[in-house]
Amino acid sequence: xxxxxxxxxxxxxxxxxxxxxxxxxxxxxxxxxxxxxxxxxxxxxxxxxxxxxxxxxxxxxxxxxxxxxxxxxxxxxxxxxxxxxxxxxxxxxxxxxxxxxxxxxxxxxxxxxxxxxxxxxxxxxxxxxxxxxxx
Length: 135
Prior knowledge:
Elements: H1 2-5, H2 9-21, E1 40-48, H3 56-64, E2 69-74, E3 81-87, H4 90-100, E4 107-115
Antiparallel strand pairs: 1-3, 1-4, 2-3
């Protein structure tokens, strides 16, 4: 990396340590869900009641608190939120939907999109280094 950027290894080490210490960069291990027994993956569109007692943000926080949920995002389009869940079985997915997600106050409707085949799952896919000053 140092030679590609025409800087010293010490410079790379210092920049790396600064990025980690400031929380800009996290080093994590990512397992392939299917290889560790999680074969039921889905994206769930979640509609939140407009004008209700709860905001989209508060509903999102409740959904994000479930261990089964990998991520939750606010979106445009038909649904206010999208959530990804990775489960070991369709039965457990059904239990999550009916016994947990549908009981969150403010959730008015959901639609579940089962992921049948993953063609690309790249957690490091951002091209942030293309725009970083390389000095």
